[in-house]
Amino acid sequence: MRERKDDGSNIGCLHNLGRCGSTLVSNMVHKTGQCQVLSEPGALLDIALLTYQSPKLLNDPQTVAILRAALLFLAKSPDARYLIKIHSFVMRILPLIHRALPRAHEAFMCREFRPMLLSFKKAFTMNFSYRMFKFIFTSIGFITKESVRAMESQGVDNLDKMFLYLFCEKTKTFIDECVSRADLISYSYESLLADPAAFTSHFLDHIGVGSQFTELALTAMKEDSQKNSWLSKKEVDKRSQATVTILEEDVEFARDLAERHFGIELEEKNLGIVGLPNLWNEKK
Q1: Nearest one of 83, 109, 93 to 207, comparing CA atoms
Q2: Torsion angle of the four alpha carbons 159, 146, 19, 91, in this order, in degrees rounded to the nearest 10
Q3: What does the alpha-carbon distance between residue 186 and residue 218 come to, in Å, rounded to a whole number?
């Protein structure tokens, strides 16, 4: 029997901000037929939620050991290649994944904040108030009551500001991790649309699948990546008949918050992240 090395080199991890094309990219990888795609496995979400409830677990070696065991359990065969699309609320444990499996191929998917927020509003928030979303998120464990107090101390008082705050917080987690790492590559939804073939070729090489499967992967772009789910284009359009907008005062709030509280510069028009580290289309 072949000895299993368990070093994670056959695993790719796709971190993301949500509503940024990560499901499409996962479907593209699946189309190659060379990689098993695991979408938002509950085991990783459970570990992340535990660290939200007890932050000291982030520095506990046992947490890293449990995370390593969970990742290797999901990627059961050492002879197969895997891509794990990680839930956007699992960004908190991004540093732990590298400690658990240093040879895993990690990537971060992002999008300009304004169109990303519009997409969130169409998909999720049309029928929810800020108060209701706070209740849901704290009940599930996506955020803690302490996190809510921290957000509101920075001026968060509506749903748009809440999402913009969370976008900044997740982005900051990625930026901080890049201080000591060059292997964690960032990709933007905008660069995927601008040059699908170049984006796909680089991404497939990065996760170890190989750019020779680019044409197969690109066939996924002809399909609705959320087909047959409640996030399909048809279902989202059905739920969001009204025009969805963002107040300019909330845009200004986001730019000020990002710079003042997180040290992130956002572009004026679409709130794109300025100077995002390890960005693929700056490395071409």
Answers
A1: 83
A2: 170
A3: 19
Q: What's this model's pTM, rounded to 2 decimal places?
A: 0.92
CA separation for the pair 153, 35 (Å, rounded): 44
Cα separation, 204 vs 218, in Å, equals 11
Q: What residue ranges in the chain does DSSP mark as E strands?
A: 11-16, 36-39, 82-85, 105-110, 185-188
Which residues lie across from 38 on neighbouring strands?
84
| Sign of the dihedral defined by the CA atoms of residues 151, 144, 166, 246, in that order | negative
Residue 187 backbone zone (phi > 0: left; psi -120 to 50: alpha; other: beta) = beta
Written as tens digits, the pLDDT of the chain (284 aa) is 344 457 889 999 999 999 999 999 999 999 999 999 999 999 999 999 888 888 899 999 999 999 999 999 999 888 899 999 999 988 989 999 999 999 999 999 999 999 999 988 888 755 678 998 899 888 888 888 888 999 999 999 999 999 999 999 999 999 999 999 999 999 999 999 999 999 999 999 999 999 999 999 999 998 877 776 756 767 666 666 567 889 999 999 999 999 999 999 999 999 999 999 999 986 44
CB 244 within 8 A of CB 122: yes
Here the tokens at position 225 are 């990546």
